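ok so I'm stuck.
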Amino acid sequence: MVQAKYKKKLDDLLAICRKNLRSVDEDLITRAFELSLDAHKHDIRASGEPYFYHPYEVATVVAKEIALDDVSVACALLHDVAEDTEFGIKDIREEFGDTIADIVDGATKITDIFRSHEITQAENYRKLLLSMVNDIRVMIVKFADRLHNMRTLEYLPAERQQRLAKETLDIYAPFAHRFGLAKIKWELEDLAFKYLHRKEYEELAHAIKSKRREREHYIRKFIAPIDNQLKASRFKFEIAGRPKHLYSIYNKMVTRGKPLDEIYDMFAVRIILDSDDNNDCFNVYGIVSEFYKPIAERFKDYISIPKKNGYQSIHTTVVGPGGKMVEVQIRTKAMHEIAERGVAAHWMYKENVSTIDKELENWVNWVREIFEQRSDETPKELLESFKLNLYQDEIYVFTPKGDLKILPKNATPVDFAYEIHSNIGSQTIGAKVNGRIVPLNTILRSGDQVEIITSKKQTPNADWEKFVVTHKAKSHIRRWVKEELRKHVDEGKELWERKIKKAKLHINEDDLTKFLHQQRINNAQTFYMQINRQELDPDTMIELLLEKTKHPGGEEVKEELQPTLFKKFVNTARSMTSGISLFGSSDNFMHNYARCCNPIPGDDIVGFVTRGEGIKIHRRNCRNVLAMRMNDEERLVEVAWPAASEVDFIAGVRISGNDRTGLLNDITHAISTFNNTNIRSVNVTTKDSMFEGQFILYVKNTEHLNGIVDKLRKIKGIVKAERFEE
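replied:
not stuck anymore, here's the structure
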């Protein structure tokens, strides 16, 4: 029976649980409350309060600010029982079962790890911490435990304040960020900042407080026209100034080397829409932009491309009244819940779970399982669905500088190399493990220190794919193999087409495919590759083909279905780059080129996200792109050709005019003398005194190409000179 003076606390906690949790086992929480109260009845905190107030406040944080489930609340009430009282894990297991006992045990072990390591060894015991966590709720309880400890840090000696504050900044805040717990992370950072840099904290807090009224007045003035327009447009929304966190401001002042007055996102506004349509966020961005000019380079679309921890929002910085910069965030209510409460919010919004990095993938799957549990599951199956091994079957290895890398079990030095950087992986020629040179297929173990030996002349080996285990390593090796294959195929195809042109032989794809099958060659790609590798003699194949392409009457088949000159030109131009980069990243992604505008390197391009065909690359001035901006602007993404400053682009020029003696010489002279332009190929025809020619050139960029075209137009007899387009 709960003592009368604690009855209200229990009632308050149950009320918070009923308000915030999907379901509440009130008997479970009551029993946990009673045991915790009994276990800590003789204990006093440094503040002079009964010790029970601490687990109670931790449980309140779990129920109100994280809001995961009732099991987490019960564990929060019990988290110090086994560590500080006469009750042990065995007693908790007998009373509450395996799940709660394991979570409390995990929280206790993490505390033991902290006590036995110096904070300077953060990376080393972060590894141990990760390996201890078998259920995500262990960390949820520890976050809440640390938050309440930081809120009451003033009662501890200065030395402990410093140690706990640094530990919080190094360990807890980054983990809270990983779990998407933004509110917890921000408060942990600000509290740690307060104790680690007291003087700077107080100066910054005073400076911000002194300008509070001025800032609030400015925000009201900024918001007013947006508020009116959103209401007129019938949006349901909340709009308000967003407080900037002290540690965040301090960090920006330090990293940018600027005083407080110059940190331009001090003014911050957040718009939260009561809508399930993500497009509404972009519509609201349009409304904001009507009133205030946006700063283009400060626009960030985390809705189309969420952050690794699932965060989604539009960020923009605009020029507000008086020329002051204001940061505006626009998101839906569901996005806001996930932004504030991370893992817990996914319980309510599972359909909004986006592609998230590997470290969070497990808890996302776990949350989905919770939603999809069936009533006919056995207790054992139900228990298993609650279990979550965040880093199951993973190993922890270190760089020579001591940086931690988490890899799957059975990973090799090549996996490690690609984990560091794709270029390192591709250039790997050897590896040292714990100072000894080992084969590249050596299986790594936790605690190994790995050093990669590279050479710029090295390229990936197709055999590596047989032993690497990480997705990153496999995808880079496969990409390289495909690129090498494509190169062999393209070169073999070009050689074959030269040969059949010389033989004046014309054959369509169907007849070629039939011929190859008769020769027991799988497909055209294999055929072209074998020609390039000199495994097949093209002249011999032409002789065989000539025999096969004769009709009974002896007439040759001459269907003209060869690739056009333009198609070959475009393929060659694109093959000279390493692909397309998305948002500045060179990682591989599915894409193809739009036929409506045929972009080539040097063009200003944009990507359009299609359904099922990856990203389609268009010229930015393509008429279809202009239509997309009106109807599907959110599906347009920024792409670019990779930087290739040392490599010229392939470009084409089409010329027509009145034929005359010396015209070809004048054209080639004009081209070659313009910035030392090299000509790759020329195709010229004359008919009825008219001249037509296609010139394939090497150019630096589109400006270089435009200069050549302008010069050609000035040549006597030239009627038209233009870029080579289909």
